[in-house]
Amino acid sequence: MKSSILWLHKWLGIITGIVVCILSLTGCIYTFQDEIKLWVYPEKYYIAHADNATAPLPLSTLLSNAQSSLENNQKITRVDLYPAKDRTWIFRAIKTDEEAFGHWNYFRYYKRVFINPYTGEVQQVENTKTEFFQLVLQLHLNLLLGKKYGHALVSWSTALFIIILLSGIILWWPKKWKGKNFRRSFWVDTKVKWKRLNHDLHNVIGFYSLFIALAFAITGLAFAFPGFKKTYIDTFNLFQKEATSTKLPVPTPIPLAYEKFQDNALHYSLKNYPQAEMLSIRLKKETEPEIDIQIRRYEKRSGVFDWLYFDKKRAALKQIKSGENLRLGDKLGTLNYDIHTGSIGGLTTKIITFTISLFCASLPITGYIIWLNKSKKAKKKKRLST
């Protein structure tokens, strides 16, 4: 039985090892991307001379300024807003080709326009397609091969990685829970020979990484396979009754201080959520009857939010959807990104994520070395027997 599991563990590791190593290293680098970008690109994210008394310009004005800084065929589809007085607002323009091969063909264009919301000045236009952390992200998501080809390779490698982890814990399980073998299962003796050291590193690191690595892989599968995400959301929803309704009994009229309704909706949101660290708007067509604004309580966490739904015709806020009021499965679904990236618990969980990602990257390397050493030993034994 154990020999069959070893065979499965070995060959799945050989097949997926390079991909798992790449995913782990890119995940490791991407963990602190929010913090590093603010430090490396201050000219994009910060306003040099902030005035706390100045109110931001209407969104429509800023959108017009951002749009005019791009080429005619490039359209802004999302805005990320930061209420902090020293931060720029980010206007995204993105278009992809789902069928294309390779990163450079997958993105038709991807631009981010950084604007001072109090003066309307465009501080910088970034070609996000070539930005370092975007390249790291796309390497993590699809190996820079484009979504059609790379996404499938990453998805199935992640699924197989779960089998590798589970088979690994069976192989790790000590025969006797005492003596030298037992100690080697939990601690690395650096005084042993190189081959033994490499083998013990693989076992011990694999054991200590197991549960968090499984969390990475399972949340990764939720991104890779929408059907899988729906299944586990529906399953956990069975443990809780219906969520608390966030539908307003009567649509709440909002003040109309501006000509365009989207400006009024944003003004209302900023005024009523002063503690929010970030707001996000997915821009819709002018003919759409609704405007949706996401309120993020924390800039670096996507799973703690309120969605505000505005009705243009009635000039009113008609519904609020809060992450706190969701059923258990739906709540886990919204926290998927935060769990996967380690941002769920702030700096502490990010450090843990960084460390375990590094450990996961080492597992294919030590595993390949074990395989090569055993292959050499088998060849030598065969040669001596003949």
Proportion of residues in helical segments: 40-55%
The average pLDDT value, as a whole number, equals 91
| DSSP, total strands | 9
Helix/strand order, N-terminal first: HHHHEEHEEHHHHHEHEEEEHHH
Terminal residue distance: 30 Å
Strand composition percent: 15-25%
Structural class: alpha+beta
Largest sheet, if any?
A: 9 strands, antiparallel
- What's the total helix number? 14
Gyration radius over CA: 25 Å
Whole-number total of structural domains: 3
Strand order, sheet with most strands: 4-3-2-1-6-7-8-9-5
Query: What ranges have pLDDT less than 50 throughout 5 or more consecutive residues?
Result: none
Shape: elongated
Descriptive terms for the model:
Nuclear Transport Factor 2, Chain: A, alpha+beta, 3 domains, 9 strands, PepSY-ass_TM, 53% helix
Quick structural summary:
Keywords: Membrane, Transmembrane, Transmembrane helix. By secondary structure, this protein is an alpha+beta fold.
Structure write-up:
The chain folds into three domains: 2-27 and 148-237 and 345-385; 49-142, Nuclear Transport Factor 2, Chain: A (Roll); 247-325, Roll (Nuclear Transport Factor 2, Chain: A), CATH 3.10.450. The protein is 53% helix and 16% strand. The chain has helices at 2-30, 33-40, 42-45, 59-68, 103-106, 132-142, 147-172, 179-184, 194-224, 226-237, 261-272, 328-334, 336-341, 347-385, and strands at 76-81, 89-96, 107-115, 122-127, 247-253, 278-282, 290-296, 305-311, 316-322. A hairpin with a 4-residue loop joins β8 and β9. α1 packs across α7 and α7 (147-172) crosses α9 (194-224). The radius of gyration is 25 Å and the shape is elongated. The model has no long low-confidence stretch (mean pLDDT 91). It holds the Pfam family PepSY_TM. The chain crosses the membrane at residues 12-32, 153-174, 205-228, 351-373.
